[in-house]
């Protein structure tokens, strides 16, 4: 299917037999754990963007004050473009607006209460500035708003991710959704 716009200026949705899912949220909301659990339950392939950026040098250096790499968005998109076409991917990243809408059939935005999120970030040895910034982002629902602005309303799902019970419930819901998606696109 072409990526060109139709007569109304909309990018047509790509029909895949196996869906692509984006799992996003503030750092510490459980994206990687949830993505790995979904991959195990569905057979889809987990793509950890943070690891990919480091492994393939898809960055422009390191920002010490925020303890993070400076993402080269163009290099990342080029790296992912071909593998996203085939479907069957669970992409795990804290930001979502950089990815083309056509890549995803479902966008999960994980949310956690700040009293849960703070100790998770402390455990990761995040510096205080990074913790404060991420807590503020979660309170202001920055990632959720970004997802809602970047993707069709019907594919963006907000999910609680405060404990293992939330994660297991989320994985079960996604597994059911994937089964239905596959049946409808066989």
TrEMBL record:
It is found in: Cytoplasm; Nucleus. Residues 123-133 are annotated as: LID. It is an enzyme of class 2 (transferase). ATP binds at residues 28, 30-33, 124. Residues 1-33 are annotated as: Disordered. GO terms for cellular component: cytoplasm; nucleus. Gene3D superfamilies: P-loop containing nucleotide triphosphate hydrolases (3.40.50.300). Its EC number is 2.7.4.3. Residues 48-71 are annotated as: NMPbind. SUPFAM superfamilies: P-loop containing nucleoside triphosphate hydrolases (SSF52540). Pfam families: AAA_18. Residues 24-33 have a biased composition (Low complexity). One of its GO terms (biological process) is rRNA processing. It catalyses: AMP + ATP = 2 ADP; ATP + H2O = ADP + phosphate + H(+). Transmembrane segments: none annotated. GO terms for molecular function: AMP kinase activity; ATP binding; ATP hydrolysis activity. Keywords: ATP-binding, Cytoplasm, Kinase, Nucleotide-binding, Nucleus, Ribosome biogenesis, rRNA processing, Transferase. Belongs to the adenylate kinase family. AK6 subfamily. Broad-specificity nucleoside monophosphate (NMP) kinase that catalyzes the reversible transfer of the terminal phosphate group between nucleoside triphosphates and monophosphates. Has also ATPase activity. Involved in the late cytoplasmic maturation steps of the 40S ribosomal particles, specifically 18S rRNA maturation. While NMP activity is not required for ribosome maturation, ATPase activity is. Associates transiently with small ribosomal subunit protein uS11. ATP hydrolysis breaks the interaction with uS11. Interacts with small ribosomal subunit protein uS11. Not a structural component of 43S pre-ribosomes, but transiently interacts with them by binding to uS11. This is Adenylate kinase isoenzyme 6 homolog. It comes from Umbelopsis vinacea.
């Amino acid at each position: 299917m072409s990526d060109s716009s139709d007569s109304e200026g909309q990018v047509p949705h790509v029909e895949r037999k196996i869906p692509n899912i984006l799992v996003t949220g503030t750092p510490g909301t459980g994206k990687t754990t949830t993505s790995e659990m979904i991959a195990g339950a569905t057979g889809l392939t987990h793509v950890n963007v943070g690891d990919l950026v480091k492994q393939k040098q898809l960055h422009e250096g390191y920002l010490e004050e925020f303890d993070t790499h400076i993402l080269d968005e163009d290099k990342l998109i080029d790296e992912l473009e071909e593998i996203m076409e085939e479907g069957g991917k669970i992409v795990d990243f804290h930001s979502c607006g950089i990815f083309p809408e056509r890549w995803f059939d479902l966008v999960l935005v994980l949310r956690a209460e700040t009293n849960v999120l703070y100790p998770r970030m402390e455990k990761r040895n995040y510096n205080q500035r990074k913790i404060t910034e991420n807590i503020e982002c979660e309170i202001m629902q920055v990632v959720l708003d970004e997802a809602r602005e970047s993707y069709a309303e019907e594919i963006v799902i907000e999910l609680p991710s405060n404990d293992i019970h939330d994660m297991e419930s989320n994985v079960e819901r996604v597994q059911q959704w994937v089964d239905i998606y596959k049946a409808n696109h066989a």
